[in-house]
Description:
Helix content of chain A is 10%, strand content 43%. By secondary structure, chain A is mainly β. In chain A, the strands form three sheets. Chain A has a five-stranded mixed β-sheet. Chain A has a four-stranded mixed β-sheet with strand order 6-5-11-10, with no helix packed on it. Chains A and B meet through α1 and β9 of A and β1, β2, β3, β4 and β5 of B.
Amino acid sequence: MNIYECNENQFIENVRRLIEAGNKLIINRTISLQDDNRYGLSILPEKEFIKYSNISYRKGYKHTSYAKVPFLDEFHKRLYNKDETLHSASNLSLARLSIPYYKIEYSFNIWGSTYIYTFDVLFDPEIVIEKRRVMNKDILIHVLRFKNPNEAMLNLRLPNEAIILDVKKLTRVF
Amino acid sequence: MQLKVKSIASFTSIEQIKSRLSELGFSLLCINTIISDGKFWHKMLYTKGEEIIYISEEIGHAYLKDPIVTIYGYDKTIDKITEVLF
């Protein structure tokens, strides 16, 4: 059995063409919340890193990221001190400050082959200054929160003739 | 009229596409960052009534950038947007 990876454009167009050719399709979809230290500040492109610039600094893309100020990561309930490493250049595949994300996978089988499209949707950061009790003192501190992405971003719009089934896990049997 | 799906990868600049969407009365609902194909993208969601358009713009270091436009709309909307993509 062959497995073909597609990008968004290819996957949607493949589904559209198959349906227009009179086929009926069942599309499997898995959506799972992940927080596995895969995405961290050092591997973010500049346009995305700028969202964290109030609490972090780095020399450039794929350089070590440090805390600019002390801040509280509310999602992981963790306090970072100024200049603490948030994502080391020597360990880019394992970020200390992990950005949570949804892993989305769409796939369908036809004529013995599987066509698959996967993408990850990052949570958006929200940085505020709030009064918090830290080490028995009430202080003003930066707080990092992660906002859930809009639900519409987790879905692909497919022709109505494609039936989407939500599944927990896709297991490939060879 | 039935809504149809069309997805196009194009070398047209993102500004031209956004301008056309604005002319057609679409408004931006949200932007999120996605990772697909080993690349980072800003995915924008535009809506107008029940019509939906996604624009995925690459934000990495690639030299040639080709935004992906996915339209869930009426034939007329698809035609008007396709005009600026080719």
